[in-house]
Specification:
By secondary structure, the chain is of the alpha+beta class. Among the domains are: 22-199, no CATH class; 207-435, TIM Barrel. The chain has 13 helices and 38 strands. The protein has an eight-stranded parallel beta sheet. Helix 6 runs parallel beside helix 8 and helix 7 crosses helix 8 (392-409). It is globular. The N and C termini lie far apart (100 Å). This is Raffinose synthase. InterPro entries: Aldolase_TIM, GH, Glycosyl_hydrolases_36. Pfam families: Raffinose_syn. Keywords: Carbohydrate metabolism.
Length: 709
């Protein structure tokens, strides 16, 4: 009788014995000699040589950190123990480590999870001597580290979240002291990218290919239909999009189609095959056949990193994957005081051959369905599913590496999602875009989601571009500031209203008439003053570079006040270089000075010292700063949020200016003493040396010359 049920009972018995042994053997993780950062050189990587280091509840070592005296700090931290792992990487600002005294591991009842909460992936300090210190915990193919400020004490933990002991050199973190926070952060990534631990798994953002489709406006099914998609409503929506005056060029078909089952003793759906359920009786071809070169050119499909939310079912029908999957019992804990959930399932065997086979099957099925790209979701939870295997970090590495490689070799663009854990971030060799926030909804929490995205840009913007998620352009509460945020994000922009509700007036300033997004040259990051301040109490500002050493600053009111005052000063300009590549340091102020153009007020001034403005509650404003050269400054198209990315200067002399407009439209220029003219349109003075050139809208690559009267 026992033999009959042995295959079913074995995973439960193994899991029970494994975790029981962990609990019985439990003692404190070895707390090693402190690392004194005040004694270190300007920039470097801290490593440790270990031999037979055995994990205890996933952690193999803990090192205290002796930090230099600091004025304030910010840490990006998250939990990695539940199904929303990698979903909420939140910035926490502080002026003292006392801020974290009540954040202690003893509140976690189940000690299997004591090292899975409040994992810090990036720590930035402003020191009392005026310098900045950036600390970037590193991830290799076998170990991960993170900073912990729990209990008001700073430490770095080294983990595998597995059972095998570790021998070898383990990277802890890269660090850098600098005179500004952006250089300090960039130097950390430089150390990581050039290190033997990380160089094969990450690379500079500019050395990756940004997928062509993400240069255009997109649409996703999720916030319109959730999981209730069908062949009928998806096909109908695509037909409506193709007829809509808003030029959406690509579509993601999100969750709701998978061939899955929910087991009697399970919590989440589990994959049966990479096929479709009965809501799509004709498969994908009738839908992907709707693609059109001039309208919806690309289609993508949502995938789950583990197959289904609960992994792969033991009743799966994928015969060619049989040898690459193994029965498993996964555990998760969403909150320290919550209940542990158990998932009996199958997961990918922890070897590269099996990972490659699984993701080959996933991507090949997507290609055969007619899809051009994939959004692969719940990536950090896939890592946590491997907790308790021989090495959870290595299993996640193999899976991410295989996914990256398979997509790259098949020319399938990869959009990463719920992948904010450093285990995933440090395994993005080819992909360049990752979702940077929790799901954007119709509520006021979109303010935090916006801040979360820009803070993640500060952390990972040297190797990734943040995806700020889909949003509703018809939502009167949040659409305006969400649009402004996306205008400067440097990443993809996609909407999720039903097509009949597209807000064309709000969308048009983001794009050209063919749907091409007017993208900044690098991801926007918080200005230096905003890195350490509470967005709920002051004007929140971010900055991004645009063409010809111009830049865009977006300002938001996420406070409870009806309106707040904001300021743009000349010193802000230098920080536009934050995520430029190649990075050559902060920008210098132009010899002839700067001008600032207020997009909402339709007003420009020379920026002699500072420019003050008001931002209404739950609104955003955008400002374009341009350098003056030979008396000229170019703002760009007046009808676009980011005018600085709408033109190319061909020649600039004291007597004339030659530019090419990506697309013609009303143009704003500045001259410090004279009135310009052109044969292409009427020139009108706006005051303060600013001029509007009235041009017919919509002509591509218009060559224009302005001369002085």
């Amino acid at each position: 009788m026992f033999k009959k049920y042995y295959p079913i009972l074995l995973p439960f018995l193994v899991g029970f014995v494994f975790f029981s042994c962990l609990e019985k053997a439990r003692s404190k993780v070895i707390d090693m000699q402190p690392i004194d950062l005040t004694l270190l050189s300007e920039t470097g990587i801290i490593t440790k040589q270990l031999k037979n280091a055995t994990p205890l509840n996933g952690c193999i070592r803990k090192y205290r950190l002796q930090l230099p005296e600091f004025e304030k700090g910010v840490i990006n931290e998250a939990n990695i123990s539940g199904w929303v792992s990698g979903y909420l990487t939140r910035p926490t600002t502080f002026t003292s480590l006392e801020r974290f005294e009540k954040q202690i591991e003893n509140t976690i009842q189940d000690k299997r999870f004591e090292h899975a909460f409040n994992c810090g992936y990036y720590l930035l300090l402003k020191l009392k001597n005026g310098e900045y210190l950036s600390i970037l915990p590193l991830v290799s193919k076998n170990v991960m580290s993170y900073v912990s400020l729990n209990g008001g004490q700073s430490s770095v933990k080294l983990c595998t979240f597995g059972t095998d002991s570790f021998t070898g050199e383990a990277p802890l973190f890269a660090y850098s002291y600098a005179k500004d926070p952006y250089t300090a952060t960039q130097k950390c990534w430089e150390q990581a990218i050039n290190s033997k631990f990380c160089k094969d798994n990450i690379q500079w953002r500019s050395k990756k290919e940004y997928p062509e489709l993400y240069n255009y406006l997109g649409w996703c099914t999720w916030e319109s239909f959730g999981g209730d998609i069908t062949e009928e409503n998806v096909s109908q929506s695509i037909k409506e999009i193709k007829e809509n005056p808003v030029p959406v060029r690509w579509v993601i078909i999100d969750d709701g189609y998978l061939d899955v089952e929910v087991p009697k003793n399970g919590w989440k759906n589990q994959l049966l095959s990479f096929g479709v359920n009965n809501k799509f009786p004709n498969g994908w071809r009738p839908i992907t056949a709707l693609k059109n070169e001039n309208t919806v050119k690309w289609m993508g499909i949502w995938r789950n990193m583990s197959g289904g939310m609960g992994g792969v079912s033991r009743n799966h029908t994928m015969a060619n994957l049989k040898e690459h999957l193994m029965p498993w019992t996964a555990y998760r804990l969403e909150r320290p005081g919550g209940n542990v959930e158990i998932e009996t399932n199958m997961i990918i065997r922890p070897d590269y051959k099996s990972s490659e086979a699984f993701y080959n099957e996933m991507i090949r099925n997507s290609i055969n369905g007619g899809f051009d790209f994939v959004k692969v979701d719940f990536q950090t939870y896939n890592f946590w599913m491997n907790y308790g295997s021989k090495n959870g970090v290595n299993a996640a590495h193999q899976n991410n590496k295989a996914l990256e490689t398979v997509c790259y070799e098949n020319n399938v663009a990869l959009l990463n999602c719920i992948s904010q854990s450093n285990v995933n971030v440090f395994n993005t060799k080819y992909s360049v875009i990752s979702r940077a926030s929790v799901d954007v909804k119709l509520d006021n929490d979109n303010m935090f989601r916006t801040v979360q995205s820009f803070t993640n840009n500060m952390w990972w913007g040297d190797i990734l571009v943040a995806d700020l998620d889909m949003y509703h352009t018809s939502n009167q509460k949040t659409a305006q500031y969400l649009t402004i945020a996306r205008a400067v994000s440097g990443g993809p922009i996609y909407i999720s209203d039903r097509p009949i509700h597209f807000n064309k007036k709000l969308i048009d300033p983001l794009i050209f008439k063919d749907g091409k997004i007017i993208r900044t040259l690098a991801p926007a990051v918080p200005l230096a003053d905003n890195l350490f301040t509470n967005y709920k109490t002051s004007c929140y500002r971010v900055i991004a570079p645009t063409r010809h050493k111009s830049c865009a600053i977006a300002a938001f009111n996420f406070t409870s006040k009806e309106s707040i005052e904001g300021t743009i000063s000349k010193k802000d300009y230098q920080f536009a270089a934050a995520k430029e590549q190649p990075y050559e340091g902060l920008w210098q102020l132009p010899h002839e000075g700067l001008v600032v153009y207020d997009w909402e007020a339709r007003r420009g001034v020379r920026l002699n010292d500072s420019y003050k403005f008001l931002v209404n509650n739950m609104k955003g404003r955008i400002f374009n700063l341009s350098p003056i050269e030979n008396g000229w400054a170019v703002i760009g198209l007046m009808n676009k949020y980011v005018g600085g990315c709408t033109y190319t200067i061909k020649e600039n002399t004291k007597n004339y200016l030659k530019i090419i407009l990506d697309e013609s439209g009303p143009l704003i220029v500045y001259h410090n003493s004279k009135t310009p003219s052109t044969k292409f349109g009427e020139v009108t003075s706006l005051g303060n040396g600013f001029f509007k050139v009235d041009l017919k809208e919509g002509d591509k690559n218009l060559n224009l010359q302005l001369q002085l009267n």
